[in-house]
# Entry
Amino acid sequence: MTIYNPFHSIGFFSVFETETIRSVDVLTGGFNADQGGRISAVVDIKTREGNKKKLSGLVSASPFQAKALIEGPIKKLEGPGTGSTSFLLTGKHSYLDQTSKALYSYAVDTTFFSFASGDTSLQDIKKSDIGLPYTYTDVFGKLSFVGGNGSKLNLFGFNFTDRFDFIGLAKLDWQTLGAGANFTLIPPNSNVIMDGTIAISDYQVTLQEADGQPRRSGVNSYNASLNFTYFGSNNQINYGFEFTGFNTNFEFRNALGVRFQQEDFTTELAGYFKYKQKLGNLIIEPGLRLHYYASQSEMSVEPRLGLKYNITEFLRFKFAGGFYSQNLISTVNDLDVVNFFIGFLAGPESTIFKPGTRTPTDHNLQKAYHAIAGFEIDLSNNISLNVEPYLKRFTQLININRNKVNETDPNFITETGDAYGIDLSVRYEKSNLYLWATYSLGKVNRDDGVQQYPTIFDRRHNVNLLASYTFGKNKNWEAGVRWNLGSGFPFTETQGFYEDNTYSDLLFTDILTGNFDLGTLLSDKLNGGRLSYYHRLDASLKRSFDFKGSSKLEATLSVTNVYNRDNVFYVDRVTNSRVDQLPILPSVGLQFSF
# Structure
């Protein structure tokens, strides 16, 4: 099922708990025919079943949050060839808005809140009365029925919420909830596995700013899928069918103050076929996806290809590519310097035109093709290097008409675009030392027929460095550091301000002495400015204490933003004031597992 916002606004935490995850596949492009309905990237997360043999769990607390996990058998797994029923339940809640009043009061700028809200009385409020304005709550549960031959049925549900509230400046709320079931069926004496999913989810987000004009977006979706896998001696065949429906409700105002509102319901039906064959040292994986968009009455034929060639025992070459399509549209407001609100809406059903022309397009879908190549090389028994250059060509993108002046103007425009670059990663692993380093060089731009411009996702440079070291008599100490650097995201610069007199009442409007709302003039060069570089160092030291049985206590001392870097979080365009991300935050946490 689709999760429309997997990260909390505070930036440290995902909605998914590490302890519940079985696998994560980050498919940055070139994904095969079993994944579709997206033109750029997919993150595929799979959760595990609960403990089938005994009751277990954990509880943890820190100044940031408290969380708990409990799992265990309802019907215990007795041995090989027997079935089981198990459950897994986890939840976490942030307390930073409360603990920060006592521990991190230095991080709260009451002077800024006073200025932003125009209420000078806030200046006199004690910092101990205002906490850091972030809060979130996540709950996830799973019930698993596993048969003796490996067939299984999982029932799951979740509720994720997030909020930040800068007094008088901006307040963002979002919630996503959902439930579903998936199954795997392994017939006896057969080399075919069948699996399927049915699920429903709802995502709602609202941003209220000082201008009093809220932005809202909601996506209610459901999906069902059925997949088959056939295993041969040196080959594998996958094929399946997917049905998806979603309802979008979207409302916001553009930089010119013109209101957009759209509510749509659409369905999609897809079928795919993927074949994997091993030919000596070559693995080839062609695929084909047929994706039908009912609201557009459009069938998208999408061939895909993946291959990997083991040139030697230490050198491997790989390639992936194909054609992709998408009907879901995401959009942002050019008035935002930092984008928290991303709205979702279905593609237009009315006539749209090619960029900068009055020539109707051939279809109303967003489409792209990918080409990704690379190689992996083992430089030694402990060091591996991965290099991946990539190109994504977006032959048609659909965007909100940012130049809409009147209600009768078209709601949508089309664009083209490119995303290209290279990803490098080096990994060193030996006994108790783990080192990992990545560097990404990328460029993402669009062309709306008037000008080429970088998108809000155009982070030119990105560096991640990670080190982990275990030591001590029983390796019960672990030290870790992580440093991340990213070049600044683009934004459209401010050209000037004006009094926005709408002249709605010509008889009584005092145009000489009247005070009107402030309007903003943006530069005609889209995303011509850049925010400052982001970089942050985090460090931690963990000590484990083992008790009888399988109980364990972990004490962690951590420091977030070690050298107290001022990284931008939010910018008020009118006042040119900014809220920075969290300053240096030392923390002590305890986790007890049993």
Observations:
- DSSP finds two helices and 33 strands in the chain.
